[in-house]
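Training component of the fellowship. As part of building independent skills, the fellow (R.M.) carried out the full modelling exercise for a liganded target. The chosen ligand was S-adenosylmethionine. The inputs are recorded below so that the supervisory panel can assess the work.
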Amino acid sequence: MTSANLKGFETRAHEVEAFRSMTAGYLPLKFAYSGSAAETHDRLARSEGYQRVVGSAIDDVAALRAMLAPEGIPLQWADLGPGNGVHTLAMGAALADDASRGRRYLGLDFSRRLMRRAETTLAVSNVTDRAFGEWDFENGPTDAVTKWRSAAPVLWTLNGITLCNVEDPVEVIRNIALSAERPDIVFATIAVADGRDDGQARVAEYDTDVFRAAVLEPLLMAGIAREAGVLELSYAAQEPAVIGLFRFTQGYKLTCHGDAHVFQAGDVIRCFVSRRFTRRQIDALVAASGVPLRGRMKDQNSPRERLLFDV
Ligand SMILES: C[S@@+](CC[C@H](N)C(=O)[O-])C[C@H]1O[C@@H](n2cnc3c(N)ncnc32)[C@H](O)[C@@H]1O
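Fellow's submitted model of the complex:
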């Protein structure tokens, strides 16, 4: 039996939450962006496959323009989870018009380390009034936007199909709405089920060395050695979702601030999930969140949709 301690997380609170969830059999994907995982995510985010999954910032802005005509896109922009900032930089450029001179930007993220990368990337952005802050949008509302904003409406963005990867998408929409004010707008991109039943092809879209390294990094931060198990990727058609499971091939004792847990060979930690929303699930998400959907727009080139909520 091998023993290990958690290390490499950004805060003690992250360590405790990661330990508790791992002992319950899952590790929220937010940990795959923070601590040393910010570096592995950055490498993944620069890969072609990731860019394909995340979609085009130019198309995001075209959809926003179409859905928000004639009143136009709000000049205050709260960007939830800017990642390494590359998508945000492109979106800022695509938003550029005369009105963009007055545009203000607030980036909010769970990961301090990744946010520093976003700050560096956005140093050349045409949106020059920029601020950054921390928020775990899976953990309750925030007053960060209230403190930053003026009385004008705010555009909230949740790009990069981030809503597909959180533990509870309904809770995230609710937390955003509770942090927003009328007549703010929330824009989210999601991946949708496209009726194809080719699970292998969907898994193949993800199954690269750079993806495996990014998904495994939070487990390494937890002190679990790569050779303690195997990463199994599959498509769960009933969800539907691409799922990553780390299956222990040996016994492992994990300790965290005085608590201990023993994983047996065969135990699993679900360390990746990327949902593909069905039509019915989108309707259920909107109904359960209680946040009105103003519109939705299909992507022309991929199985993705853009959702626009009125808070
Ligand atoms: C898939 S990346 C998207 C990055 C970028 N917006 C894009 O379109 O490429 C997810 C982003 O959301 C952040 N994130 C994930 N879970 C979060 C949470 N619970 N609270 C706040 N940010 C979170 C991650 O740190 C990361 O910046």
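The panel noted the following from the submitted structure. The longest helix spans residues 209-221. The pocket of S-adenosylmethionine is lined by residues 30, 33, 45, 54, 81-83, 87, 109-111, 114, 135-138, 159-160, 162 (CB under 6 Å).
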